[in-house]
Amino acid sequence: MELKEVIGRRRTIRFFLPFRPVEREKIQKMLEAARRSSCVGNVMNVRGIVIWKDQASPELIKAITPPLGYQQMQTAPAFIFWYNDIAAYQIDKWIGDLHKLAESRRIGTDVASTKAQIDRGLRPAFAAAWQQAAVGPLAFMDVGQAIAQATLVAYDEGLSTCCMSSPRLEQVGKLLDLPETAVPVCLQAVGYSAEQWEAGGQTVKPPFESLFFEMRHGTPFEADPAVEEELRREKMIQAPAPLAWREAELKYLMTALGLEERITAFPFPAAAPTGNGAASSGAAGDAKS
To answer: Is residue 39 within 8 Å of 79, Cβ to Cβ?
Structure first.
């Protein structure tokens, strides 16, 4: 599958086949894709812990369950707990990583001269700021890039995923033997989709010009219709949700998988009826939002 089509076909999947395990080698490919991601100074602060549901204790599954994760946690056979390790930015390690970039001819043109510049100029500045940098926007962006690459490889391997809000560190730290330098980023459910791959259609996003600007905020980067048409042909842009059959699919999935009519990890009190007599919440309605 071409890259643009992989991006276009990617969906956040919430209904997995609970009886079909994920091959270990496919998880390894996801992790390798994360390891190959871009990272400032090559510090590689991204970390991931693979959790096989059939090997995890009920205590661990409960601890890693995010509030908006009922369907995923009930059906996914595997999870990846992604976190930022701030120790990767420790000054001596960071400078060492930069030296290795110089040695591998990834920065600078002369190894000795580049290392000297790193030691004279960057070490003093980074020594004063590495702890802030370790939890700064760029650090978490790098973790996000790694997860994104793992996600695309998962879809290329026929898997589906769902990234959920990260559990609180104090709930999972001891259960996973996490270091004190760990900062949770997200929990990613991984498995084979029980939904059709379209998952009801491509999620509708805000208008292009409302997100991207040119030269200054408020001046939209105007999209070229010809480019949009090209991306439709290459299957990056696809039919928007909800497709006509989506509601029927959701009802079928709920019955086939024996799920309750909720999306949260814990049940809420019954919602008050709306004006037309229908409940104001429910799996089908929430899934289409």
So the answer is: no
Type of residue at 229: E
Q: How far apart are CA 55 and CA 278, in angstroms?
A: 41
Asked if 246 contacts 288 with a C-beta cutoff of 8 angstroms, the reply is yes
Residue 44 φ/ψ region, left for φ over 0, alpha for ψ in the -120 to 50 degree band, beta for the rest: left
CA 112 to chain centre: 39
Beta bridge partners of 202: 240
Express each pLDDT in 113-122 by its tens digit: 999 999 999 9
Domain boundaries defined on the chain: 3-199
Peptide bond into 77 cis (omega under 30): no
Q: What is the C-alpha to C-alpha distance for residues 242 and 229, in angstroms, rounded to an integer?
A: 21
**Distance (Å, rounded) from C-alpha 220 to C-alpha 69?**
36
CA–CA gap between residue 133 and residue 116 (Å, rounded): 22
Backbone dihedral angles phi then psi of residue 193, each to the nearest 5 degrees = -70, 135
C-alpha neighbours within 13 Å on the C-beta side of residue 251: 4
Place of tokens 């939209």: 220
SS3 173: coil
CATH fold for domain 3-199? NADH Oxidase (3.40.109)
Report helix, strand or coil for 187.
Answer: strand
The residue count of the chain comes to 289
What is the model's pTM?
A: 0.90
- Best CA proximity match to 79, nearest among 96, 103, 101, 63: 63
Angstrom distance (rounded) from CA 34 to CA 88: 15
Handedness of CA 96, 102, 104, 106 (dihedral sign): positive
Structure tokens at 44: 């590689």
Give the pLDDT confidence of 62-103 residue by residue, as tens digits: 999 999 999 999 999 999 999 999 999 999 999 999 999 999
